[in-house]
């Protein structure tokens, strides 16, 4: 944090110096500067009144960073805000300033919540850019800023200047590419493991000493003296399968077989063997590239990453060359025989504690920030020497303390000495199992324990025998509720309790056991067992001295050797018992809260009319219907997921990843999905789809105030977790099958965001479902990647036609009962007649439910409704009318004024990111009701939702909140529209926008739904003038961004058809401006609409220079680009499309799409080895070259996968064209040794490769820019 603070100061100083040399204010106010310099009109509004006052009244040293940034960007003669110079991929002064400011606002100011490694990486990058800013200023103004540079360099970690420059350029490029730094590290981890596995399998298949028809197991029995010490039980079990192949073995097992079955040198000498030998390279590949250092060491240190990755490639080459010499095979032959995707890769990665594509192992504690390190007493208790195999497969020698634990285990284990004594006592006290099985007390025992009752009781454990003694009808013992069982004393009952407590202590708390402590424990156990036997003898008039003597002799002769497997199983049983108790308790508590305390979890009514009793009957269990869920990354796919598929995938369904992100627009049913899952879980008998789920943790992001999973569980399930030590909760959650539901990430408080990160790190093996709006998906995926996890992204697309009908029928049945069939049929028929007009309302569950409820109240009013805004307007008007009628009020105006006051509160809370009303808000609205002489309480209950249970947000027992984000956004818009109409204030002023800055762009994105409501309300009230339309468009289109184009189209597409004024306002937008040359992540349909409706121009080809539009998007979005590409072609514009391949399923569709757009340059962005292989196999080599984009950070390893794929496809005459000036020789040499021609061509863009499968010369260059024309392309 000290470094963070110091760098923050350096940022401010750098911006101050830059301002002092570059600012063109020269003592003038902003108003004077704008008038005298004739600058663009929007600059006048960029600065708010306070900032304008500060500029003329305070010295520059007292300006805050936000003001400094605005002056640099808008009043220093730099490029205009629309200029590409501000794009982060450009190495310009403008881009450096923007990057540093963005980093300061987004990350450095939230350093406390950022993992140390990530924070330090970002700080290093900021320092590099600060240095570049100072260098730019020095060059432009011919000044010496070396003193400030030294201050900046003091905070820089030890990295060479050449590295800093190279890395800064790479980082800058990556900021706008699909490959963020964390993603590249993740890709390198995965690729490294795949390559290692392939090489090891290839080596084993070519070098093994197995005779014909001889199995590995047979060979080991004859030639491996200590097989059980080398291979774990699980590995031995795998080897028993005669049909198993090395492709289906984990990396660690294949490596062990290389050492034992391939006739190589003694494996104990591998580590010290000479560099360049086969043994040395195999050892290095296993040790150096198979540890968790891959995630935290060299691969995360860009200074060494390339060397580290190339060194791995060198070892691979050594292995290939030596095996080729031994077997007299060429390199190509070895690669052709190399296995494809490992069927056991997930297990292989788990053996390294590395992330997999489905489930992710937890990072090692050393990888995590101190505050995020999981505290796991079980892990510490059962040391690695006891439970983990070393890499060699041999068990590490036990320490004396660990041997002492195992000795105690002999006494307390199932079937041990203590259990035998308790069985004797149970028999002497005439315990009756038959009576127990036939009575009600049998429920106290699990099904497994009831089965044990029919066997030998001496094989059971202490906990089971304790329950038998207490509940089994033993004579001479007090009743089960008697306090004597837990009251200290000399009673037999308390003696049994003490024995059980020692057993629990041994499992839960004992880490190591020194010899003196062991002897004390044995002595204590001996005294307890002797006391129990003596008291039993006295009670039953039996002489049990022989049993006492035998017990003491057994303890005296207690061996110090033990069965390690039974010891491990015993400890595991104890942990399972504790976890099971926790799970049962948590489920009961959740069921109780769901049924009796949290009525909102069951309630699914979208409105809150209190005078209609039927609304309270609209519950999730009665009306829920699945919406269609599809893979967000696959276009044209017919694969759909139901809720049951997500919870319990069928054999023919793709397995859902450990983290599933479900995106969907507001009102599509994300919260309802979470509620329904909880409903299924809280049934008397949980739904069969949840049979694999032991516990659900529900995190409603809008209400969260806890920042860690431990504190969250203690506050939400106090009966279960309240008395459990904080350090024990996370270990106990590792074994149960936990499903975490994170609902509404876009509504997350700061605490909820921290809690989300804690969940990712603390519960890596749990299934996680997180819902959010689409614009939040990139942030979520980034956090998931940073945690070393992978995810599947699904999207909710709305009701199917059948689902819509079922939902409507369910709703009508609840509301109108016997009349439901006729009314629902009329409503459905109406929807079918106007399906195109009502599509925006009927595809979403929320708006469909509102429209249906309005229909039930007044079908004529419902028929007038065509938009979401009209729907909310009519519902609000209808509710007020009913309330006025109940109150016998003649004047509608006071009630509407109260609604506007509610809108004011809604708007204030939106700016605070709050959905619930504070006590002050409630008082304010109550006083407003009194002033207007309206029934405030009824207005509250008519328009707001009341949480009557104890809220997580406050100690108050009554919390008023908006039912949904949509509702808060609508009321905010009503207030803003009222202010605009009455005071003629500009919308920009009301919203508080000054016209620039990264923060304002983010806020504008968040407030876009409010602006959409405002636009509709103005049009609805016939107050949408040409000036207002222009102002709204000017706000929304302040920047060229994916979300702004999409919002403008959504907001004005229909209005433009109906209003000439709106069409003219659109036509006036972007006058004299050109479309950005690089569009990443833009909706193609929105870009097409903007180009057709506005004056935005596209770069055109001139004689001197070719201009290109670069479109970057996922496969699914690229497949929608057809109309846009045709439009751009009519405008004489060349286009390059970068396609991020994320699924093998769409490759054939992409190839077909490329055939239809022959004049477009397509670049494939590949980062997955299996995608690389799939692409090579489907590519039409006879028709076109393959253009690949490979990020520099993953080039060495992905290059290997490229070569393997090309050669495995049996391709000949391969030529790879590139322009990497400093491409390592090892890659060139490797390509040439495989018969691949390798050619440097400067016209090929950096980070791209052009691959040909013909003998033709390199195609001619049409332009002097970067793109290549394929001579074979039609």
Structure, explained:
The chain is of the alpha/beta class. It is 55% helix and 6% strand. The chain has 61 helices and 17 strands. The strands form three sheets. Strands 10-11-12-13-14-17-15-16 form an eight-stranded mixed beta sheet. Strands 2-1-7-3-6-5-4 form a seven-stranded mixed beta sheet, with helices on both faces. The chain has a two-stranded antiparallel sheet with strand order 8-9. Helix 10 packs across helix 60. The longest helix has 34 residues, at 564-597. The radius of gyration is 35 Å and the shape is globular.
Would you summarize the structure shown here?
With 1274 residues, the protein is of the alpha/beta class.
């Amino acid at each position: 944090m000290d470094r963070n603070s110091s760098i923050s100061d350096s940022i401010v100083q750098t911006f101050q110096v830059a301002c002092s040399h570059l600012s063109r204010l020269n003592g003038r106010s902003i108003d004077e500067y704008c008038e005298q310099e004739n600058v663009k009109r929007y600059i006048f509004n960029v600065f708010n009144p306070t900032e304008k006052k500060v500029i003329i009244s305070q010295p520059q040293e007292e300006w805050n960073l936000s003001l400094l940034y605005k002056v640099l960007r808008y009043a220093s003669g730099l490029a205009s805000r629309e200029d590409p110079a501000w794009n982060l991929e450009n190495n310009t002064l403008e881009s450096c300033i923007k990057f540093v400011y963005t980093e300061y606002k987004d990350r450095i100011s939230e350093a406390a919540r950022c993992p140390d490694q990530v924070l330090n990486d970002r700080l290093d990058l900021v320092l590099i850019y600060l240095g570049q800013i100072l260098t730019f200023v020095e060059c432009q103004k011919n000044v010496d800023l070396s003193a400030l540079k030294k201050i900046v360099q003091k905070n820089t970690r030890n990295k060479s200047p050449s590295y800093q420059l190279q890395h800064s350029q790479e980082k800058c490029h990556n900021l706008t590419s699909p490959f963020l730094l964390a993603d590249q590290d993740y890709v390198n981890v995965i690729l490294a493991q795949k390559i290692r596995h392939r090489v090891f399998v290839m080596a084993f298949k070519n070098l093994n000493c197995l005779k014909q028809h001889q199995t590995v197991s047979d060979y080991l029995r004859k030639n491996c003296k200590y097989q059980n010490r080398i291979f774990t039980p699980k590995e031995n079990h795998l080897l028993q399968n005669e049909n198993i192949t090395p492709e289906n073995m984990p990396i660690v097992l294949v490596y062990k077989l290389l050492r034992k079955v391939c006739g190589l040198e003694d494996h104990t000498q591998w580590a010290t063997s000479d560099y360049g030998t086969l043994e040395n390279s195999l050892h290095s590949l296993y040790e150096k590239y198979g540890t968790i250092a891959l995630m935290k060491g060299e691969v995360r240190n860009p200074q060494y990453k390339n060397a580290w990755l190339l060194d791995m490639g060198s070892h691979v080459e050594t292995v290939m060359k030596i095996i080729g010499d031994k077997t007299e095979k060429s390199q190509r032959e070895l690669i052709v025989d190399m296995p494809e995707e490992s069927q056991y890769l997930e297990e292989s990665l788990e053996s390294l504690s590395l992330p997999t594509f489905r489930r992710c192992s937890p990072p090692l504690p050393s990888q995590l920030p101190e505050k995020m390190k999981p505290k796991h007493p079980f892990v510490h208790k059962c040391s690695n020497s006891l439970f983990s195999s070393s890499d060699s497969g041999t068990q590490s020698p036990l320490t004396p303390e660990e041997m002492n634990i195992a000795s105690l285990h002999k006494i307390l284990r199932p079937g041990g000495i203590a259990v035998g004594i308790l069985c004797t006592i149970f028999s002497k006290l005439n315990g009756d199992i038959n009576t127990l099985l036939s009575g009600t007390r049998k429920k106290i025992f699990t099904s497994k324990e009831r089965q044990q009752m029919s066997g030998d009781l001496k094989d059971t454990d202490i906990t089971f025998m304790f329950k038998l003694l207490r509940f089994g009808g033993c004579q001479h013992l007090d009743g089960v509720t008697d306090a004597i069982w837990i009251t200290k004393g000399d009673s037999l009952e308390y003696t049994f309790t003490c024995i059980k407590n020692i057993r629990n202590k041994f499992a839960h708390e004992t880490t190591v056991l020194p010899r003196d402590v062991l002897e004390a424990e044995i002595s204590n156990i001996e005294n307890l067992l002797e006391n129990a036997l003596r008291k039993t003898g006295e009670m039953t008039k039996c002489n049990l001295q022989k049993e006492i003597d035998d017990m003491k002799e057994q303890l005296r002769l207690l061996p110090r050797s033990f069965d390690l497997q039974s010891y491990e199983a015993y400890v595991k049983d104890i942990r399972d018992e504790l976890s099971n108790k926790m799970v049962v308790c948590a489920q009961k508590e959740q069921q109780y809260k769901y049924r009796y305390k949290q009525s909102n979890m069951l309630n699914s009514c979208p409105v809150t009319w209190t005078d209609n009793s039927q609304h309270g009957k609209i519950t999730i269990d009665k009306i829920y219907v699945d919406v269609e869920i599809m893979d967000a990354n696959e276009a044209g796919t017919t694969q759909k997921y139901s809720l049951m598929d997500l919870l319990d995938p069928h054999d023919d369904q793709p397995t859902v990843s450990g983290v599933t992100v479900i995106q969907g627009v507001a009102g599509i049913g994300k919260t309802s999905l979470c509620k329904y899952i909880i409903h299924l879980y809280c049934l008397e008998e949980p739904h069969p789809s949840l049979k694999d789920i032991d516990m659900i943790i529900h995190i409603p992001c809008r209400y969260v105030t806890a920042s860690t999973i431990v504190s969250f569980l203690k506050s939400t399930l106090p009966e279960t977790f309240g008395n459990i030590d904080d350090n024990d909760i996370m270990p106990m959650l590792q074994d149960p099958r936990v499903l975490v539901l994170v609902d509404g990430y876009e509504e997350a408080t700061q605490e909820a965001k921290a809690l989300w990160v804690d969940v990712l790190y603390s519960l890596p093996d749990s299934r996680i479902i997180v819902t959010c709006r689409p614009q939040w998906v990139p942030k979520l995926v980034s956090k998931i990647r940073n945690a070393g996890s992978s995810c599947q992204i699904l999207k909710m697309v709305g009701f199917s036609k059948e689902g819509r009908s079922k939902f409507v029928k369910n709703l009508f049945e609840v509301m109108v009962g016997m009349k439901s069939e006729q009314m629902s049929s009329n409503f459905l028929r109406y929807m079918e007649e106007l399906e195109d007009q009502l599509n925006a309302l009927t595809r979403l569950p929320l708006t469909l439910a509102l429209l249906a409820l309005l229909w039930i109240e007044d079908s004529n009013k419902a028929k007038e409704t065509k938009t979401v805004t009209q729907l909310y307007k009519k519902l609000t008007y209808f509710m007020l009318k009913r309330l006025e009628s109940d109150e016998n009020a003649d004047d509608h105006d006071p009630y509407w004024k109260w609604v506007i006051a509610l809108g004011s509160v809604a708007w204030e809370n939106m700016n605070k990111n709050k959905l619930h009303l504070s006590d002050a808000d409630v008082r304010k609205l109550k006083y407003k009701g009194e002033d207007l002489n309206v029934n405030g309480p009824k207005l509250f209950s008519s328009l707001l939702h009341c949480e009557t249970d104890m809220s997580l947000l406050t100690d108050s027992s009554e919390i008023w909140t908006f039912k949904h984000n949509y509702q808060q956004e609508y009321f905010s818009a009503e207030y803003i529209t009222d202010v605009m109409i009455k005071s003629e204030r500009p919308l920009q002023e009301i919203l508080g926008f000054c016209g620039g800055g990264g923060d304002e762009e983010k806020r504008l994105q968040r407030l876009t739904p409010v602006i959409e409501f405002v636009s509709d309300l103005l049009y609805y009230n016939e107050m949408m003038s040409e000036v207002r339309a222009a102002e709204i468009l000017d706000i929304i289109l302040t920047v060229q961004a994916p979300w702004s184009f999409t919002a403008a189209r959504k907001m004005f597409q229909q209005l433009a058809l109906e209003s000439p004024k709106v069409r003219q306002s659109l036509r006036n937008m972007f006058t004299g401006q050109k479309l950005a040359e690089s569009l990443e992540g833009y909706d193609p349909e929105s870009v097409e609409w903007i180009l057709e409706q506005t004056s935005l121009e596209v770069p055109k080809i001139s004689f001197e220079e070719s201009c290109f539009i670069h479109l970057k998007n996922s496969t699914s979005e690229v497949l929608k680009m057809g109309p846009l590409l045709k439009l751009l072609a009519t405008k004489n514009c060349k286009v390059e499309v970068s396609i991020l391949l994320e699924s093998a399923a769409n490759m054939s569709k992409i190839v077909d799409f490329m055939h239809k757009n022959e004049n477009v340059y397509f670049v494939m962005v590949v980062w997955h080895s299996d995608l690389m292989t799939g692409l090579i196999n489907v590519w039409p080599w006879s028709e076109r070259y393959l253009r690949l984009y490979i990020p520099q950070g993953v080039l060495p390893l992905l290059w290997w996968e490229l070569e393997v794929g090309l050669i495995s496809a049996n391709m000949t005459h391969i030529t790879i064209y590139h322009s990497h000036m400093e491409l390592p020789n090892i890659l060139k040499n490797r390509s040439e040794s495989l018969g691949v021609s390798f050619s440097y061509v400067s016209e090929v863009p950096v980070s791209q490769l052009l691959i040909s499968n013909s003998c033709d010369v390199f195609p001619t260059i049409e332009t002097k820019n970067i793109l290549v024309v394929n001579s074979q392309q039609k």
